[in-house]
Amino acid sequence: MAIRIFSGVQPTGNLHLGNYLGAIRNFVRLQQDGNECLYCMVDMHAITQWQDPKELTEATRMVAAGFIAAGIDPKRSIIFNQSRVAAHAELAWIFNCVARLGWLNRMTQFKEKAGKQRENASVGLYDYPVLMAADILVYKATHVPVGEDQKQHLELTRDIAQKFNNDFGVDFFPITEPIIQGEATRVMSLRDGTKKMSKSDPSEFSRINLTDGPDQIADKIRRAKTDPLPLPETLTDLEARPEADNLVGIYAALSDQTREQVLTEYSGKLFSEFKGALTDLAVGRLGPIGSEMQRLVAEPAYIDAALENGAERAAAMAAPIIREAKRIVGFLGA
Ligand code: AMP
Ligand code: TRP
């Protein structure tokens, strides 16, 4: 069976190191391996929590710039924004009638995002994972590269595909495989090793943005929370220290090594020294991406044309699949 890759990133706030190491870097690798890839700015997911319209437009361009600057070639891969391809919303409605309330009630991301304001959360936020299943399956994508936090949503995608196939007695939608790969599938906040690095954290010092300059990167790493002990020798000792584990994981991912290899080099050394090395590495790897992003967003015409072209190609790919899904359901005229 042919491999087809799909993944999405929400155009909200700034792209950060977690997005890069957990997701975007793998997008680039999968493209370079010669796979057919679709990478999507999921603007319809973004509005499940209120977004300023102007900022949403700008963030969509910024994420696209991040993809391209990181190495995604809009000719080889399809990059586009979700709302342009109506088939995502159409399939999401069919899946709304396949997915069960009980399944959605188990989604931990909804619980985290809605928090105590559950009654006041949008219906869209609750339904978010169903739209995500539609994003993937409207292209019959077989593999989905994501960070660790999306694992549960991808299990739901498999359940929806399976139930659709069973309910209608067909073998139509593939059972998608997640690709959760690397030493940094869950990058933690630089201020708190028990919290995920996230676009929505109020503290700028919790994350390194892809557009941060060398001084900002250095400053954030210098202020990153650590403990006073030197770096340990073993992984078990490292894992007991969340902030230390996070920084070593970031170093490993950025230098294409394992945590063990990093410890072999740095065990017994102090964090003051390690942080200097990490800063040099991060500036060297992220600096060129950040400056290319700034250059690209300064001239949006190129990005806008790439996204328009991507949406046309995506829509053409989705068209026969949504038509067949409607036919399977029994919709007249499909
Ligand atoms: P989002 O910004 O929530 O749309 O996430 C886009 C992609 O980045 C998804 O594949 C996430 O799993 C991944 N991601 C987000 N935050 C992190 C993190 N802190 N560590 C690793 N991957 C992440
Ligand atoms: N929920 C994903 C996130 O926040 C974004 C997303 C939407 C996605 N649709 C997708 C990821 C389809 C992979 C495949 O990170």
Word description of this protein:
There is one protein chain. The model has no long low-confidence stretch (mean pLDDT 97). The chain folds into two domains: 4-185 and 299-329, 3-Layer(aba) Sandwich (Rossmann fold); 204-295, Tyrosyl-Transfer RNA Synthetase (Orthogonal Bundle). The chain is 56% helix and 7% strand. It is globular, with a radius of gyration of 21 Å. The chain has helices at residues 17-32, 43-46, 53-70, 87-96, 101-105, 108-114, 123-137, 151-168, 214-223, 235-239, 242-254, 259-266, 271-298, 300-329; strands at 4-9, 36-41, 78-81, 143-145, 177-179. Strand 4 (143-145), helix 8 (151-168) and strand 5 (177-179) form a beta-alpha-beta unit. The protein contains 14 helices and five strands. It has 334 residues and is mainly alpha-helical. It has a three-stranded parallel beta sheet. The chain has a two-stranded parallel sheet with strand order 4-5. Tryptophan (TRP) binds at residues 6-8, 10, 42, 45, 132, 135-136, 144, 146, 150, 153.
